Amino acid sequence: MRCGWEAFYRFARQHHQVLVEGDEPVGGRWSLDPENRQPPPKEGRLDVPPPPMPKEDDIDAEVRAGLDRWEREGVRFVGRDGPRRCPATGREAKARLRHFLKHRLASFGPYEDAMLSTDPWLAHSMLSSSSWNASPTSPRSSRRRGSAAATRRDESRQAQTPDAGLRPRPVARRRPAPWRAAGRTAGRTPDR
Question: Which residues are CB-contacts of 36 (< 8 A; sequence separation ≥ 6)?
Answer without folding.
Answer: 109, 110, 111, 112, 113
